[in-house]
Amino acid sequence: MARNLKFTLIGLTALVLAGCNTGEPNGQQPQPAAVEVAEVVAEPATLWSGFTGRVAAPETVELRPRVSGYIDEVSFTEGELVQRGDVLFTIDQRPYRARERAAEAELARARSQLTLSEGRAERARQLLGSRAISREEHDQRVAAQDSDRAAVNAAGAALENARLDLQYTVVKAPISGRVSRAFVTRGNLANADQTLLTTLVSVNPMYVYFESDQQTFVGSRTFFTPDQRPQVRIGLAGEEGYPHRGELDFIDNQLNSHTGTIQFRAVIPNPDGTFKPGQFARVEMPTEQLSDALLVNSKAVLTDQDRRYVYVVNDKNVTERREVVTGPQQDDLVVIRSGLQPGERVVVNGLQKIFFPGMPVAPELVQMREPDPERQLASR
């Protein structure tokens, strides 16, 4: 039995050896795996940080009537653009026209009374000179003249107020922008300074507000000066990347003590109405300027739990695993804060062919970043 087992093992060993020699005749070693490598780029770089922001209109108006009355007409199409001065609502004008006429009549009566008192005061001054009237009666007539003049002024003010109220029955757009729906329709009562008629928001340009932590604020402050307004990149939900460009125009004057953040604001053109108030937006802002940053293609960086590493090819074309500390990503390149040196060759394509560190490879040198004129133009 033991003898048979011995012969069986010898036969299996021979078969295994024969199978190993079948693929590589004459004992040749396997060819090194072909991979693409690129040299670590060292160049000045502006680092960008991402934030979540919210779109807001520079001007927002809650339109309320200045006088009370029943809505007589709604003169706009809901949701459309309106210009400043366009008529939106008309309140029943009949009561206010009647008040205007009453104020005009009161002014006419006061003026007539003033004319009479002015004549009596003038005669009193003449009679006082010839001592045909007492000083007391003279003073009474002059006082009556002053009182009637004051009554004319009061009647004139009442007429002006009545005319203002009549003007306020025509509710006009105070700004140019997009109007919401009519919250009060024809035939309903609108109370002065209380009833919300509709809302208006300006549409071009728009604001994007976002919050930054204290550390990022310190770094970004160097980009914001009275003579310099840094550009920001903005993207909306459903959009790829950051296709829109805005300009940082405001930093709040204090940090929020509850959250430890400070508010930034970017202004962005909106001629086609892409941005609407209340939308969430993704924002990238420049936060750091490096004079000599090390950059590698993002495809070269691998992850092992919480560690990042790359494969470096040495002078003998043997791979080395190198742990790195990464920074922000700039387009298709990643900033390497430590772990690499300028000029070292890093595997960027063919990583799936490397099974272990120390494996020999056949490297082909390529560019770390691929030329893309459209991307370069968009990043300016």
TrEMBL record:
InterPro entries: MdtA-like_b-barrel, MdtA-like_BSH, MdtA-like_C, MdtA-like_HH, RND_pump_MFP. Pfam families: Beta-barrel_RND, BSH_RND, HH_MFP_RND, RND-MFP_C. This is Efflux RND transporter periplasmic adaptor subunit. Residues 206-286 form the Multidrug resistance protein MdtA-like beta-barrel domain. Keywords: Signal. Residues 1-18 form the signal peptide. Residues 59-197 form the Multidrug resistance protein MdtA-like barrel-sandwich hybrid domain. Residues 293-353 form the Multidrug resistance protein MdtA-like C-terminal permuted SH3 domain. It is found in: Cell inner membrane. Belongs to the membrane fusion protein (MFP) (TC 8.A.1) family. It is a lipid-anchor. It comes from the Bacteria. NCBIfam families: RND_mfp (TIGR01730). Residues 102-169 form the Multidrug resistance protein MdtA-like alpha-helical hairpin domain.
